[in-house]
Design goal:
By secondary structure, the chain is mainly alpha-helical. It has a single domain, classed as Orthogonal Bundle (Arc Repressor Mutant, subunit A). It has five helices and three strands. The longest helix has 28 residues.
């Protein structure tokens, strides 16, 4: 079995050193975004976050009606998003409402908008 090998003629050690330093500078942010992307790679969780960004807050019953799913799997998705601090909840009487916390709104809006952008680039 042949293993492909890199055939570059020269090693740009300055570029490699600069790229490593750049990754060190942004590694924490990249880790946070990778975690958010991992959670949002589930279509259901992406829909939940999208709809909560649009309508501010909903209970599990509301989300069940919107998504056409049973409450149990929705609750499991909500728990994962809440554990990652992408959602919060607040009890009002017997009902628990879920919402995107203020410190996450712009970040998640930007992330979701980039999914709809035709000309996304760095």
């Amino acid at each position: 079995m042949n293993t492909p090998r890199c055939i570059r003629k020269d090693v740009d050690t300055d570029m490699i050193k600069e790229a490593k330093q750049e990754l060190l500078l942004v590694s924490k942010k990249l880790e946070q975004e990778a975690n958010a992307l991992s959670l949002l790679s589930s279509e259901v969780r992406l829909k939940i976050v999208y709809i909560l960004l649009k309508f501010d807050r909903m209970c599990v019953c509301d989300l069940s009606d919107v998504l056409g799913m049973n409450q149990s799997p929705i609750s499991q998705h909500l728990r994962k998003l809440k554990d990652a601090k992408l959602l919060e909840n607040r009890r009002e009487g017997m009902t628990i409402f879920y919402f995107v916390p203020e410190d996450q709104k712009e970040r998640l809006k930007h992330l979701i908008k980039s999914l709809f952008s035709k000309n996304w680039c760095i």
